[in-house]
Amino acid sequence: MKSTGIVRKVDELGRVVIPIELRRTLDIAEKDALEIYVDDDRIVLKKYKPNMTCQVTGEVSDSNVSLADGKIILSPEGAKEVIQELEGFISKSD
């Protein structure tokens, strides 16, 4: 885990401010949802993405396909982009 050197105090309502530098770096906008996990003695915040969100286009749809045991979610448009990139990669290696 990488330390940022930033320290924030918890206020009386249990809130912690995430510094703007981190929000910009991690593309977290105002009103974005965050998932909260506990890992041993750590609290982990992760930008929330619904289950069927395409990892290329960000489109959420039940028609998106789940590949590699759910590790990859693609919309039809996202799949086309991946295929084009893979074809280019394969042609370069020949």
UniProtKB/TrEMBL annotation:
<dbReference type="InterPro" id="IPR040678">
    <property type="entry name" value="AbrB_C"/>
</dbReference>
<dbReference type="GO" id="GO:0003677">
    <property type="term" value="F:DNA binding"/>
</dbReference>
<dbReference type="GO" id="GO:0042802">
    <property type="term" value="F:identical protein binding"/>
</dbReference>
<dbReference type="GO" id="GO:0030435">
    <property type="term" value="P:sporulation resulting in formation of a cellular spore"/>
</dbReference>
<dbReference type="InterPro" id="IPR007159">
    <property type="entry name" value="SpoVT-AbrB_dom"/>
</dbReference>
<dbReference type="Pfam" id="PF04014">
    <property type="entry name" value="MazE_antitoxin"/>
</dbReference>
<keyword id="KW-0749">Sporulation</keyword>
<keyword id="KW-0805">Transcription regulation</keyword>
<feature type="domain" description="SpoVT-AbrB">
    <location>
        <begin position="5"/>
        <end position="50"/>
    </location>
</feature>
<keyword id="KW-0678">Repressor</keyword>
<keyword id="KW-0238">DNA-binding</keyword>
<dbReference type="InterPro" id="IPR052731">
    <property type="entry name" value="B_subtilis_Trans_State_Reg"/>
</dbReference>
<keyword id="KW-0804">Transcription</keyword>
<keyword id="KW-0010">Activator</keyword>
<dbReference type="InterPro" id="IPR037914">
    <property type="entry name" value="SpoVT-AbrB_sf"/>
</dbReference>
<protein>
    <submittedName>
        <fullName>Transcriptional pleiotropic regulator of transition state genes</fullName>
    </submittedName>
</protein>
<dbReference type="Pfam" id="PF18277">
    <property type="entry name" value="AbrB_C"/>
</dbReference>
